[in-house]
Amino acid sequence: MATIYDVLRRPIITEKSNYQNAEHHQYVFEVSNDATKSLVKDAIEQLFDVKVMQVNILKVPAKRTRRARSRRLMIRRSGYKKAIVTLAPDDTIAVFEGVK
């Protein structure tokens, strides 16, 4: 890893991640393949100025799917690594909060 900006790729915003955000103060990010829990924790704390309580990392496997027009053509979506970050109860990240 060169910098903390290389660790985090993008936030993952889905129905499940919104539920985790509202109920458990957890935020989901796609991270680089060589990121570790300590690198993710340091990057989140420095970029968003919050206190990280816990980091869980898992690898999402690659999947095969078909194209919409011709159902015969198979493509392969690449796998990635994601991190579920639990923050302190009083901290929030503004990217996930939406319109206020």
What would you say this structure looks like, in words?
The protein has helices spanning 15-24, 37-48, and strands at residues 8-11, 26-31, 52-60, 63-66, 74-77, 80-87. Strands 1-2-6-3 form a four-stranded antiparallel β-sheet. It has one domain (4-88): Alpha-Beta Plaits (2-Layer Sandwich), CATH 3.30.70. It has 100 residues and is an alpha+beta fold. The protein starts with 7 loop residues before the first strand and ends in a 13-residue tail after the last strand. The chain is globular and about 50 Å long.
Describe the structure in brief.
This protein has helices at residues 15-24, 37-48; strands at 8-11, 26-31, 52-60, 63-66, 74-77, 80-87. With 100 residues, it is an alpha+beta fold. Strand 4 (63-66) and strand 5 form a beta hairpin.
Features:
100 residues, 4-stranded antiparallel β-sheet, two-stranded antiparallel sheet, globular
Instruction: Tell me the β content.
Output: 35-45%
Q: Count of DSSP helices?
A: 2
What's the gyration radius in Å?
16 Å
- Principal-axis shape: globular
Quantity of strands, as a count = 6
What structural class do helix, strand and pairing data support? alpha+beta
Task: Provide the helix percentage.
Answer: 10-25%
Annotated CATH architecture: 2-Layer Sandwich
Task: Count the domains.
Answer: 1
Q: Regarding quaternary structure, how should these chains be classified?
A: single chain
Layout of helices and strands:
Elements lengths: L7 E4 L3 H10 L1 E6 L5 H12 L3 E9 L2 E4 L7 E4 L2 E8 L13
